[in-house]
Amino acid sequence: MQSVLDYLQKNQSRFLAELCEYLRFASVSAQPKHKPDVQACAAWLVAHCRQIGLDARLCETPGHPIVVAKTPNAAPRTPGKKPARKHFVVYGHYDVQPPEPLELWQSPPFEPRIEGPIIYARGSTDDKGQNFAHLKAVEAYLKTGTPLPCDLTLVLEGEEEVGSESLGGFLKEHRRELDCDAVVISDTGMPSLKHPALTYGLRGMMAFEITLHGPARDLHSGVFGGAVENPAMALARLLARVRDDRGRVTIPGFYDDVKPLSKFERQQAARYPVTDAQLKKLLGVPQLFGEHGFTPTEQRSARPTFEINGLTSGYQGEGSKTIIPAWARAKITCRLVPNQDPKHVRQVVTNYLKKICPPTMRLEITAGHGAEAYQVSPTGPLAQAALRALESAFSAKPILIREGGSIPIVNEFKRILGADSLLLGLGLPDDNAHSPNEKFHLGCFEKGQRMSALLWQELTR
Amino acid sequence: MQSVLDYLQKNQSRFLAELCEYLRFASVSAQPKHKPDVQACAAWLVAHCRQIGLDARLCETPGHPIVVAKTPNAAPRTPGKKPARKHFVVYGHYDVQPPEPLELWQSPPFEPRIEGPIIYARGSTDDKGQNFAHLKAVEAYLKTGTPLPCDLTLVLEGEEEVGSESLGGFLKEHRRELDCDAVVISDTGMPSLKHPALTYGLRGMMAFEITLHGPARDLHSGVFGGAVENPAMALARLLARVRDDRGRVTIPGFYDDVKPLSKFERQQAARYPVTDAQLKKLLGVPQLFGEHGFTPTEQRSARPTFEINGLTSGYQGEGSKTIIPAWARAKITCRLVPNQDPKHVRQVVTNYLKKICPPTMRLEITAGHGAEAYQVSPTGPLAQAALRALESAFSAKPILIREGGSIPIVNEFKRILGADSLLLGLGLPDDNAHSPNEKFHLGCFEKGQRMSALLWQELTR
Question: Quick one: fold of A204-258+304-371?
């Protein structure tokens, strides 16, 4: 085992150069113009996995392809028989968020920039840097000839940022091949390098777009203004009615199935080593804001939200244009918690919006993707093994956290493969995931590789 | 005089070809990229005026140039002495609104398309087609050798759509040269070709932008959502509080100085020959909407408004992007009526927004241009002359209307030159001014030329 850890230590600069290659692909899954970049990135990953010694292939899907890479000579798994070796799936995604607004990046999003112990690039922390750490840990076993105590299958998809539409079908089709003891995922975060973390819960989500249509075309606001409702104003008034001034959603039924936080969970949340003042400074807000009766840690990880991601209406160019816009649109995502059902939430939200939409407007609602929240027991043997690997790799006592983001596919792994997921996030809170100047700490990269190498030992002890 | 009218009748097809030339200039004053087009349009106008026989020149300003064209051999005007001939200023503007959104045009905005009696192009009705009608009437006098009963100065500016910033200074500088008996302006509308109109009132305006700044950058809505206010939501909530659900502005002091409508004015408004059903159909709205206690005609011409012209926040591209936007912006124009003071309205609006802005947001207000409303007596000799010219040119009894749009410079003519303005609009209600597929009726063009030719006779009778 020491040779594996030594190999990792010795090869950091090469690993970093390879990570830069990986980050140069503008694999933006949401934007059709980047389809060739997504495909090139997948092809590069397959070639890289083969070079390491993995048995890798590209699986086409109705959307972007999935990269599958397996350690050689896997033990056969026959239903009903205990296999010779355990099998773990390592999940990650090679697609990234759109880089816009480009003008806020200090260096181009797809030209990685290294400054001290930090690498800046779109996808560096979410999720290329994180899944690459696992890949390098496997390489260390294979290249040093150290026997892996288990079989591994890496599944790297290209649609995580657009709802993992194809993954469910892929898992169903390859259910036998992917039959495993657990799924390991590094796509979340830890509070700091001194606080490695196991994430035992995730929020779900429900995305949609609201468009209010008013006049048949933009109207002169002088000639017609006053005798016709303004769609932008109608939208503002509609949105103002879904939430109160303390952050609580006012849509009837929205909180119907929310599982209350237990005393134990609130204690764990209180251990989270970020003060309100630090959070306020990190976000750069004049003041924190959130639902009454919950701490900021609870608000952003264990409470549902109704969030506007974008507003579009009328004239947005330079100068002024005196119009009544023909329509106004809001992009929305609701974050969900256990045990909210995205379908139910979508239904109550839709019902409410239809009910309060004024007769002067035609309401159009476009459904986006939905996913349930997730929770796994933090006291089971899988979690305990993960906590040991974290403690050893980071030389620090790990903490148990719930994360506010969504990894919808965690539910798919449970539902289709029957497997629990171990969420071992390597991101830091200020990594700017989904924002300009996304970054990844090289300490997280290196310790993440070590954690991954140790994890296979701990999981098979 | 008959030779003037005959000349007009005979030359319509050439006039139309020339109007097309004029409309091909993309003279968009709001967009810096179109500055060369604005300048080329002005230069073309000067050349065209000279060709007609006018004494024309380009006057540079701090913004876009102003074209000044005078009939030859003007009678000298000495302060205190009655001049030999009356002098009228004809005002128009050669700049146009931005053409966006381009995808909604059925043919390119700067490639005029003629279909039956209608010409489609940006600027066709607002205001190139209208001011060109006056130019052609002058041409008819000059080319037929018919003596004009008065002196005329055409003033065609290039900044009307961006608030006529330079015109005030220009009028002050050329106060002596522009000393006149009245200003004639065709930049408004008539209800139909059967209802030529004199507009005796205009609304004023007050433009500004509100930006709410929240977090220092776009945030991951999963990781941070719930513990931080969303600027798009804060903006919606702010905007929802400036107006009630019946269209009445709720900002304290907003209606302070509004002059109530007289019985006579309400009678004139009731003559306006457009039914609510026709208006609803014209605008393509599910339902009309407006302030309680006023008819749609009154609401859109004689009542102040608070109108959102554009909303911008967060992600607007394809697909979804799960962020909390760093900021959210609304472009706003308030329409004002006599006797509201734009400065006072700006002050009460600003005070109110500051008061209701939540402590989670930093409020930025950017002031745009402002202008007072305007009203002129519909029973004076100037108006009576105009009504006679209208009736003769259009063979129909003209009506007296108030228009909801703003022509800020009407106030400047009054303040600086001491001159009243005759608003003889040639546009039709469905001309799509400021909208895609702007158009102008060739009947308005031709009858407008005749009205202009007759007007100089009536004004000097």
Answer: Alpha-Beta Plaits (3.30.70)
